[in-house]
Design brief:
single chain; eleven-stranded antiparallel β-sheet; four-stranded parallel β-sheet; Tumour Suppressor Smad4; alpha+beta; Rossmann fold; 17 strands; 28% helix; 299 residues
Length: 299
């Protein structure tokens, strides 16, 4: 087995490099071949993952959700499918949390060395890929709009501050959504699609009972109502994703969404497309390392 560790030196507070000697020593002890690559620029990990997919059995990603998404897109545009493992070192680390990967390096390595891997779904929006969330509307720009220097200095508080500013904006988004059960249309302030029960560092245990290998993506549509906007959003997060009477919940393997060109899509916390999108679920298209608890919960 050949392993390639791809890491983002600026994720979180930029301290992951201090852990590399420990990782090298652990792999030598297991008599496993490990190469290491440090990201040089934005989207660099996508290019590296694409070019090296044929040469490695496993990609290990150290970084936040953006770094994982970059590597995912490199793998999915290749004809080869290395397994994917994560060492969380970002701010929110939703992907790692969903897969049950601890910040403890010792625990993360144990999952890798025990070969605890399963096949999971990958979601595709137009020609890009994501693991756990697609969203548009209120609160969705903050994960990619916040200045990286502020994130490094203030951590999660930088996102909270940006969220409070975004709540003052009036999102009125006309959408028509084609899905497995028909067509849904209306004016919405947010669309939130999730493969699991976590987003933005928050657990939404009442959102639904999703699986990561069922070929289905779930979408919540928040109808536009100016007067009740703030109250409904606060209630949604405080009650961990509980659906209100006003909102619509869809489950489908495929969505075709028609909307205006100024609507910006968020893919795993990264800025994606504008305007119309087509979403497909690629069932069990990627093998990932997960905790035993996650296997029981999501598979």
């Amino acid at each position: 087995m050949k392993y390639l560790l791809l890491y983002n030196p600026v994720s979180g507070k930029g301290k992951f490099h201090k852990k590399i000697p420990y990782i090298i020593k652990a792999f030598k002890k297991q008599n496993l071949l490990l190469d290491i690559y440090e990201s040089k620029s934005e989207k660099d990990l996508t290019k590296k993952a694409y070019s090296e997919a044929k040469n490695y059995d496993v990609f290990l990603v150290a970084g936040g959700d953006g770094s994982v998404n970059e590597v995912l897109n490199g793998i999915m545009t290749s004809n080869f499918r290395p397994k994917l493992g994560i060492f969380p070192s970002g701010t929110a680390n939703d992907t790692a949390a969903i897969l049950g990967i601890s910040r403890s390096l010792k625990k993360s390595l144990k999952i890798i060395f025990n070969n605890q891997s399963v096949k999971m779904d990958v979601n595709q929006v137009n020609d890009r890929f994501f693991i756990y969330t697609v969203a548009a509307g209120i609160l969705t720009p903050i994960s990619y709009d916040v200045d990286r220097a502020l994130i490094k200095k203030y951590g999660y508080l930088a996102y909270l501050r940006a969220g409070l500013k975004d709540l003052k904006k009036d999102y009125q988004i006309d959408m028509e959504i084609e899905h497995d059960d028909g067509i849904t249309s209306g004016k919405f302030m947010m669309l939130l699609g999730l493969s699991a029960k976590r987003v933005g560092g928050m657990n939404l245990r009442r959102f639904s009972r999703p699986k990561l290998n069922d070929g289905i993506l779930e979408i919540r549509l928040f109808k536009y109502k100016k007067r009740s906007k703030l109250k409904r959003l606060i209630k949604f997060f405080l009650l961990q994703g509980l659906k209100s009477k006003l909102d619509i919940h869809l489950k489908s393997s495929h969505f075709k969404i028609t909307t205006s060109e100024d609507v910006v899509w968020n893919l795993d916390g990264e800025k994606g497309f504008c305007g119309n999108v087509e979403i497909r679920v690629l069932k069990e298209n990627l093998e990932v390392f997960v905790s035993k608890k996650t296997i029981k919960k999501y598979f």
